[in-house]
Design a protein that fits this description.
By secondary structure, the protein is α+β, with helices and mostly antiparallel strands. Helices cover about 30% and strands about 15% of the residues.
Length: about 250
């Protein structure tokens, strides 16, 4: 469904707002629906991406200088830390072009310190350089939107990522949400929650706002707090932690 179809469904079938002048403008409902798509992705990780090379950012940061790496990272010899797009929720897989298998990770600081590589953090306060094989062993996806190779690769390379992420750009009245179409109608629940939460005598309805919020949560799960989002990047993939065969 495109934006104007969702707006009309929300207006006619959910909000009962079909008499002009409308209580909510089209652009307001479209904004609520875009908020809903972001909420759905944060809760359920609905967008999995292995192909988008860069995040061009918003209209204000869409220049080359504003672009950030998404699924392809240009790796430089002896550099361990790279800043990625803030749209990334979780790195699910990372493989260097020069290697036959993906790296183990994401891994936590504690796991490195206590189980795998106690000397990974160098005495100078940086990630230790790679040993003679020249390849990283693990990667971290914390804090924030950074990826850290442990140890740092000793040669230039390219990292291929599979990530879950937020939508890259808001959808418009003429374009569709980026999530799968089977979830489009359900975005109206969160949009209705926002609409009935509007602080206006003609639109405010706390009971209905709470009802639609509960319906949205039942479909997409609860919104994780900041700590849960951070831990989700590490713990959800802990079972995959094992040594990998390196490329030649």
């Amino acid at each position: 469904m495109i934006g104007k179809e969702l707006v009309w469904h929300l207006r006619s079938s959910v909000l009962d707002d079909i008499v002009i002048p409308y209580l909510w403008e089209d652009k307001e409902l479209l904004r609520f629906l875009n908020y809903a798509e972001v909420q759905a992705c944060r809760r359920a990780h609905l967008i999995i991406d292995a192909t988008s090379q860069m995040d061009a950012g918003t209209a204000g940061t869409a220049s080359t200088a504003g672009q950030q790496a998404l699924c392809n990272v240009t790796v430089k010899a002896n550099q361990a830390v790279y800043t990625l797009s803030s749209k990334i929720l979780q790195i699910r897989r990372c493989q260097l072009q020069s290697m036959a298998f993906p790296l183990s990770g994401p891994i936590s600081y504690n796991a490195l310190d206590n189980e795998w590589m106690p000397d990974w953090f160098g005495t100078a306060g940086t990630v230790s350089l790679s040993d003679t094989n020249g390849y990283p062993d693990f990667f971290l996806n914390e804090p924030g939107n950074q990826i850290t190779f442990v140890r740092a690769p000793s040669m230039n390379d390219t990292a291929w990522l599979i990530v879950s992420r937020l939508p890259l750009l808001p959808f418009t009245l003429e374009t569709s949400p980026e999530i799968d179409e089977k979830w489009h109608i359900d975005l109206c629940d969160w949009a209705a929650h926002l609409a009935f939460s509007k602080n206006d005598s003609e639109t405010s309805n706390p009971a209905l706002a709470k009802e639609y919020e509960a319906s949205f949560t039942a479909k997409f799960g609860p919104l994780p707090d900041a700590y849960s989002e951070r831990m989700r990047k590490v713990l959800s993939q802990k079972s995959r932690m094992r040594p990998r065969e390196f490329g030649s």
